[in-house]
């Protein structure tokens, strides 16, 4: 196996492994250790692995702190069976953070990862210092349970083509599509020690977790009043997967939350505006 160096940028950070409750989790840890800022732990989207994080975003985030990306149980290069509930995924994330010996973290959760980040903040409220919830939605939110036929087709096919990904994550405008292709090129720059692709079994379990989380139940929204960490909610103005209106709902229900919506952008706004979003996160989390 080729060893990659950490000082060559996030795209080339070395794969690491750690035992978590009898399974082996694959992760990457890079950036500069800070005496004042806790590590930033990133939680990935449906069917995503370590290589799906945009290196352009990661390099901005890692400029003055440590960044940790992880495959949870059964995802990518990690062993075990993928849970089919968000609550169990959150427990796996907590087991991983505990295994690293981290007493405090900041969390960035994208899409399904944002569901997990919300759950962590609720069940372990003293662990996260600050939250960034990107392209995600609260449990029980409206219009979340049953994706449109187009979204389901793009997201859940046995094989996800580049065109499927662009249709799901970007708006279809000339500019958004151009930036989408640039993102895909950045994620392919790493050729050695790439992460394993997620399996169909992982897809099915994660989809079950997403649909269960999305069952409409307005009472579930009250859970968000228990999140007291400073929170940044972000999305594109045309998210067809999680619905941009649910980002506004998140920001409304989490006390004091800030919200930032990016123009002509869909679910993959953070890959369309990686540098801008990275600097907005750094400003929010502190430098």
From TrEMBL:
It comes from the Bacteria. Residues 38-270 form the AB hydrolase-1 domain. Signal peptide: none annotated. GO terms for molecular function: hydrolase activity. It holds the Pfam family Abhydrolase_1. SUPFAM superfamilies: alpha/beta-Hydrolases (SSF53474). InterPro entries: AB_hydrolase_1 (IPR000073), AB_hydrolase_fold (IPR029058), AB_hydrolase_sf (IPR050266). Keywords: Hydrolase. This is Alpha/beta fold hydrolase.
């Amino acid at each position: 196996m080729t060893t990659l160096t950490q000082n060559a940028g996030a795209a080339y950070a070395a794969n690491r492994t750690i035992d978590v409750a009898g399974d082996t989790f694959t992760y990457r840890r890079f950036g500069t250790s800070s005496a004042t800022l806790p590590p930033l732990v990133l939680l990935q989207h449906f069917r995503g692995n370590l290589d799906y994080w945009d290196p352009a975003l990661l390099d901005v985030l890692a400029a003055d702190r440590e960044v940790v990306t992880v495959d949870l149980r059964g995802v990518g290069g990690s062993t075990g069976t993928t849970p089919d509930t968000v609550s169990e995924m959150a427990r796996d994330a907590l087991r991983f953070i505990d295994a690293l010996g981290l007493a405090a973290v900041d969390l960035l959760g994208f899409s399904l990862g944002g569901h997990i980040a919300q759950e962590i903040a609720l069940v372990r409220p003293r662990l996260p210092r600050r939250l960034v919830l990107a392209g995600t939605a609260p449990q029980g939110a409206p219009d979340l349970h049953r994706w449109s036929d187009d979204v389901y087709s793009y997201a859940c096919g046995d094989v996800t083509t580049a065109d499927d990904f662009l249709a799901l994550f970007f708006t279809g405008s000339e500019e958004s599509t151009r930036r989408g292709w640039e993102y895909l090129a950045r994620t392919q720059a790493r050729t050695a020690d790439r992460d394993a692709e997620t399996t169909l079994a992982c897809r099915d379990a994660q989809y079950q977790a997403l649909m269960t989380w999305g069952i409409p139940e307005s009472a579930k929204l009250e859970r968000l009043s228990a999140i007291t960490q400073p929170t940044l909610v972000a999305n594109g103005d045309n998210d067809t997967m999680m619905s941009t209106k649910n980002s506004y709902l998140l920001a409304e229900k989490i006390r004091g939350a800030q919200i930032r919506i990016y123009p002509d952008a869909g679910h993959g706004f953070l890959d369309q505006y990686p540098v801008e979003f990275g600097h907005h996160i750094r400003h929010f989390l502190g430098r």
